[in-house]
Amino acid sequence: TPEGWEGRGTGSEERRCSSLTADRSGSTWPRAAGGPGSSGPTELSRLSHGDLYRLSVTDPDRFWGSAAADRLRWAEPFHRVRDCDLSSGRIGWFLGGKLNVSVNCLDVHVEKHPDRVALIWERDEPGTEVKVTYRELLETTCRLANALKSHGINKGDRVAIYMSVSPLAVAAMLACVRIGAVHTVVFAGFSSDALAGRIQDAGCKAVITFNEGVRGGRVIQLKAMVDAAVKTCPSVQHVFVCQRTETPAVMGERDVRLEEPAVCAPEPLDSEDLLFLLYTSGSTGKPKGVVHTQAGYLLYASLTHQYVFDYRDGDVFGCVADVGWITGHSYVVYGPLCNGATTVLFESTPVYPNPGRYWETVERLRISQFYGAPTALRLLLKYGESWVKKYDRSSLRTLGSVGEPINHEAWHWFHSVVGEGRCPLVDTWWQTETGGVCIAPRPADEGAPIVPAMAMRPFFGIQPVLMGEKGEPLSGNDITGALCISQPWPGIARSIYGDHQRFVDAYFKPYPGFYFSGDGAYRSEDGFYQITGRMDDVINVSGHRLGTAEIEDALDEHPAVPETAVIGIPHDIKGEVPFAFVVLKEDLSDDAPAVLQQLRDLVATKIAKYAVPEHFLVVTRLPKTRSGKIMRRILRKVAMETTEDLGDVSTLDDPSVVKEIIEAHEEYRKQREEEKKKK
Ligand code: WT7
């Protein structure tokens, strides 16, 4: 037993009795010892990465117990590291412990280095970045927290945040956290209907938004979108409006402008109190509110942030994701702030005002870790190397990719052109449900090679298992199966909001006793993992997860459309795009172009612009089995023009439908080619 490895959070008096100092924030809790920038080496930092991994799987209680005690500040120590039963979806970590995530992300750093920059807001207009110190972020957070409190928002209440990437968005998240309210950030690219759906499902009592947002030089009417959404949301009592642009927002009765005192005492929360909900798409039905809780999520975000990206004190961490996605939660906000990092908030787009934007930002802000999505890289590499080489990238130390499979071309371009071949490039696999990175090439022992375009190694505590077609764990290497994880880890989601049964059914029923990811994976000869893609009806458009059923639901609302089927097909930049097969009422076939335009608008208003299908094919009927199930396999083959081998069609109700659809597609293809020629 390495000295001092025992979890100090477990029954330690030290934490309770250390001298308490009140600071401006009103927090009086003793400080955490571990993590980056801590005064002495912790037990974790003495072991090799290989030894840490072995310990994490052979003795998870000791590993996670020590990590939680060392890295987090507790108001009350926990008495039990974990209590989990995966088959019933019961997951609890650090039981009996009380803490506040905002204290861990702000106060502990303000005590040590109040003037360290917490956020660099890379605003839409290049060269206008704004730096926010830990002290300032704590103050703003407390102001917002007080405003929420004084308007009746309490512990456990849900609050929707509909804001573009900005310090106020981060402060809004942390303000909820400070008072124990549960935030649900809704990506500002979602429509007002999509926002309303999430507010209703979560039963939000308030919404925090901006008057307007800006992105890529365009203005987005955020407050107006919220106004439209809350019309159908009786639970909302207040809309808090912050200013992003000069234009004053039109204020109504329930709207509140923000101005409050800058000190707010943190609420001590149980480890397993809700931290946030984040809505994401499943293979069926409406988006599900993935539930994350306090201590386990924070610990996992902070540990992965440090080890996967080799984060060190003084680094400028650049994750260019939006705070509306889990990547923004874990690696723009919670992981970096818990580690006392300087984290970049990227408000703009990769091509605004030109395709050099990312690398110009890297040079200007001296970014150490650059973490982004393959879809953006695929777009940028088409513009050529000069946009990269113009700028000094010597500050970069680690490159990261996330959200979708990274193809070899993009991987090599990122690695050799952007990183000059000298920065480890980590392809990180994880999900909204996993809370943080689960499979990535790092950490690994010194000098371990990285295989291009492979996620490779499980993180501490993660035990991947590949399942065969009969539900049996596959042993051995050079094998493909359904990607499961056999033991719980602190960052795993705890439930689906309001529907625990759906949580159990989706993740723990398919392979009893295991977490099922929905992805397939390959394990190489060397035992490394490569993600092969979703096994369900979830698609990935520009790194954004979408259920094809969600798009179908939106299309089916059109009165002229009895039936639709949506599939994903590969796209060279976006990764995948939706392809819609649409059956129209017979008498409407002449109006098809008008109806299709209405369908596009419908998807944009029901979901978001990026969800609008790239292709619409009008067909007279869909291929169905005798039991009425649509055979999507056939639709995929038609859309991808690989109909030579259709596989077994004997279960089709009427096989002649296949020929019809192939012909319709052939016609569609010709039309598109002609249109292209005209352009
Ligand atoms: C799905 C999760 C992880 C944060 C952003 C997306 C796909 C994610 C990879 C990767 C191949 C990946 C999976 C996964 N995915 N990372 N490195 N290689 N596929 O989170 O929206 O919850 O989507 O994204 O299919 O299941 P999300």
TrEMBL record:
Keyword Ligase listed: yes
Residues annotated as domain Acetyl-coenzyme A synthetase N-terminal: 51-105
Highest taxon above the source species: Eukaryota
Keyword terms, alphabetized: ATP-binding, Ligase, Lipid metabolism, Nucleotide-binding
A GO biological process held by the record: acetyl-CoA biosynthetic process from acetate
GO cellular component, one term: mitochondrial matrix
Catalytic activity: propanoate + ATP + CoA = propanoyl-CoA + AMP + diphosphate; acetate + ATP + CoA = acetyl-CoA + AMP + diphosphate
Polar residues composition-biased segments: 18-28
One GO MF term: acetate-CoA ligase activity
InterPro entries recorded: Ac_CoA_lig, ACAS_N, AMP-bd_C, AMP-bd_C_sf, AMP-binding_CS, AMP-dep_synth/lig_dom, ANL_N_sf
Domain AMP-dependent synthetase/ligase: 107-492
Residue stretches making up the AMP-binding enzyme C-terminal domain: 550-629
Family the UniProt entry places it in: Belongs to the ATP-dependent AMP-binding enzyme family.
Protein name according to UniProt: Acetyl-coenzyme A synthetase
Source organism of the structure: Oreochromis niloticus (Nile tilapia)
Lineage per the UniProt record: Eukaryota, Metazoa, Chordata, Craniata, Vertebrata
